Amino acid sequence: MNLFEMTIGRDAEGGKLCVVAGGKKVLVGEADSVPRSVGREHVLLTVTDRGQVILQNANIENDLYVNKYPVERKRIAHGDQIELGADRFQLSWEVLDKFFTLADIRPLEQVWKDYQSKRLSLQIKERRFGVLRSATGILTTAAMILGFMELGGGAANSLRLVLYGVSFAVTLVFFIIAWQSASRIPLHQQQLEEEIRQQYSCPYCGALFNLQSYEQLRQMKKCPHCGAFFIK
Predict the structure, then answer these.
(1) What pLDDT is recorded for position 215?
(2) Which of 98, 149, 181, 221 has a CA-to-CA distance to 8 between 20 and 30 Å?
(3) Of 23, 4, 46, which is closest to residue 222 (Cα–Cα)?
């Protein structure tokens, strides 16, 4: 899948560098700055969704050089020397950078997974604590049942008192834990969200993506803030 395409050549009327991208035609440079050996549609530049930048001749008769070697089609990287036509007109990356930039968002997948894992861990801790806290109700209920049972002797009364005592002690312990957790867990959640907001940002411009899932980012073509195309 291609994220972006543009055609590069020489404007026939003014002799400027002509770039056609997204249906828009842009002229670059001074009049007659591009030699006639450069065709009107000399090369096609394509950016794939994997971040590959492919440069190829639009016409088999065109001359294209990358790093001094003649090519018909080649994957290029920022900084490669690109020359067009028999006169070897140099196409600078300064010009290309005005039309497209790349942002590799693949490392953000692990950042999102770590956030989801920590968030799930906090939720599990909360629910497990709720389950343990229900044990106090079980002990109290058992003591009440013994109170209604017609059991004679001091053994039943002693067991009932023990259960009440244990229930009270457990309730007190869980009250203390709940009091501490009432502030600790929300603070952990807040810290976790602050961390994800700082780490989960555009690799090119640094703009924050907030809490958009990684799958949502993958469905986007480019950064909504700087327009850099996402490498997925």
Answers:
(1) 93
(2) 221
(3) 4
pLDDT at residue 175 is higher than 60: yes
Task: Find where tokens 């958009």 sit.
Answer: 212
- Which stretch of 61-65, 132-136, 162-166 has the lowest confidence by average pLDDT? 132-136
Q: What is the pLDDT of residues 109-124, one digit of tens each?
A: 999 999 999 888 888 8
- What are the CA-CA distances from residue 129 to residues 122, 132, 135, 147, 176 (Å)? 11, 5, 10, 29, 12
What sign results for the dihedral spanned by CA atoms 23, 29, 32, 38? negative
| Cα(198)–Cα(175) distance, integer angstroms | 35
Q: Are 10 and 34 in contact (CB under 8 A)?
A: yes
Pairwise CA distance, residues 121 & 15, whole Å: 64
Helix extents (H) in 200-220: 214-219
What is this structure's pTM?
Answer: 0.64
b/e string for 107-122 if b means 16 or more Cβ within 10 A?
A: ebeebbeebeebeeee
Tell me the two tokens of residue 14: 């003014």
Closest CA to 72 of 43, 95, 51: 43
